[in-house]
Amino acid sequence: MNDCNQHAEMNETLRAFGAPQSLVRDYRHWSLLLRPQQVTLGSLALVAKGPATAFSALAPDAFSELSRVTSELEPALKQAFAYDKLNYLMLMMVDPHVHFHIIPRYAAMRELHGHEFTDEGWPGPPRLDIHTHTDGAMKDAIRAELLRHWP
């Protein structure tokens, strides 16, 4: 699958994270999506395309491409939202296909267009059970701010 927008080939995990509407950036082996629940400002999901349900089952090219993806997303997130730390979580307990939850971490509240975002877990593990309500317009604003800083 070369494009997240090819619905017929989209895996279940891509759909669970709102693809293709939540797409931030598409790569050959990965799709970077805005998480439906914003645990912290700029929370993302990086989902492997295809059927792999184990990290070791990914194609070697997917591992190589992961380096490119992270080298692009980290500076964009940093410039857009000035995170203090960045957590990559590979949980795969609910959604079966290989994916990471990418959670920017903040020691202090962040604001975007008058909307406040707090990191309820700081300085400990992220609180995935707590998120800031974001409507479609706010999600579009988050995505736009992130893409404005994309290399």
CATH topology: HIT family, subunit A
Oligomer: single chain
Order of adjacent strands in the largest pleated sheet: 1-2-3-5-4
- Low-pLDDT segments, ≥5 res: none
CATH superfamily: HIT-like
Distance between the ends: 24 Å
Number of helices: 3
Element pattern in H and E: HEEEHEEEEH
Helix-and-strand structural type: alpha+beta
Strand content: 15-25%
Radius of gyration: 15 Å
What is the domain tally? 1
Q: What's the average pLDDT?
A: 94
SS elements, strand count: 7
Helix content: 25-40%
CATH class: Alpha Beta
Largest sheet: 5 strands, antiparallel
Spatial shape: globular
Folded structure, characterized:
The protein has a single domain (7-148), classed as HIT family, subunit A (2-Layer Sandwich), CATH 3.30.428. The model has no long low-confidence stretch (mean pLDDT 94). Strand 1 (23-26) and strand 2 (30-34) form a beta hairpin. The strands form two sheets. Strands 1-2-3-5-4 form a five-stranded antiparallel β-sheet, covered by helices on one side. Strands 6-7 form a two-stranded antiparallel sheet. It has helices spanning 12-16, 60-81, 136-148, and strands at residues 23-26, 30-34, 44-48, 85-89, 99-105, 110-112, 115-117. It is globular. Helix 2 packs across helix 3. With 151 residues, it is an alpha+beta fold. It starts with 11 loop residues before the first helix and ends with a helix. The chain is 26% helix and 21% strand.
